[in-house]
Design goal:
single chain, binds zinc ion, 241 residues, extended, alpha+beta, 10 helices
């Protein structure tokens, strides 16, 4: 959509352990370099075995450049003097132009909604497929465009006369009083009124970034109806208030 452009990526975290004595590494270099390497090691506090590089301190106390530090560590690693590990790959983006936030938001919401619907319908297709009364191999072959496949393979569950029957969803009670209490707790924690969609996700135990943020999982109502169809729970939620 031209809203952001990927610029570069880097590892945010570096740690290493010494395979050669610290001083022997330092001794390999001329005085100017020694000073830098000593600073780098000083800024890499050692836990039991691993030293975690603290680039901020290196910069603030010694004006030690990050790129130079990484180049040095890579070199030590190549030499076999240390074992180096990097992690936390971080992507950096440039925001191309002041975006029209509400337009981007509504476009994304539509996109996610469509993806959700298509995922759900795919799950339904799969469930239908497993419960099919027609030869599964033959249905798969048709799906992949093989029209010449036999209509009965002779070895799938259907052909063996064992048509799969998936268990029905349990039908728990919709205790209006209980649901109402759980949702009140949720909204108190959220400190605002929530949509019925979000409340339903809460009762069905469907994780969202918002629930993580407010630690909704710790509330007693979270996931109480995780085995009940979403549509049904949503109806209860809408009737509750
Ligand atoms: Zn078959």
């Amino acid at each position: 959509e031209g809203v952001i452009r990927s610029k570069y990526s880097y590892f945010a975290d570096y740690r290493f352990k010494f395979l050669l004595d610290k001083q022997r590494i330092i001794d390999h270099f001329d005085p100017e370099r020694r000073q830098f390497i000593q600073a780098l090691f000083n800024c890499s506090p050692q836990a039991r075995t691993w030293c975690q590089v603290d680039f901020d301190t290196l910069w603030h106390q010694f004006q030690g450049d990050r790129a130079r530090a990484i180049a040095a560590l890579d070199y030590f690693n190549e030499k076999g003097w240390i074992e180096l590990e990097s992690k936390l790959m971080t992507e950096v983006y440039h925001v191309e132009k002041a975006p029209n936030i509400s337009a981007v938001v509504s476009k994304l919401a539509t996109l996610f909604h469509e993806k959700e619907s298509s995922d759900i319908s795919r799950i339904h297709h799969l469930i239908d497929f497993f419960q099919s009364e027609l030869c599964l191999s033959s249905r798969l072959a048709h799906y992949f465009g093989d029209q010449a496949a036999p209509t009965q393979c002779g070895h799938c569950s259907v052909c063996r006369g064992e048509i799969a029957v998936l268990p029905k969803c349990p039908q728990p009670d919709s205790n209006k009083h209980l649901i109402d209490g759980w949702l009140t707790q949720l909204e108190e924690k959220a400190r605002r009124a929530l949509t019925s969609q979000l409340k339903t996700k809460f009762l069905c135990g469907i994780a969202t970034p918002f629930f993580t943020k407010i630690k909704a999982r710790t509330l007693p109502g979270y996931g109480q109806y995780e085995s009940t169809p979403f549509k049904e729970v949503k109806q209860w939620v809408e009737q509750t208030r």
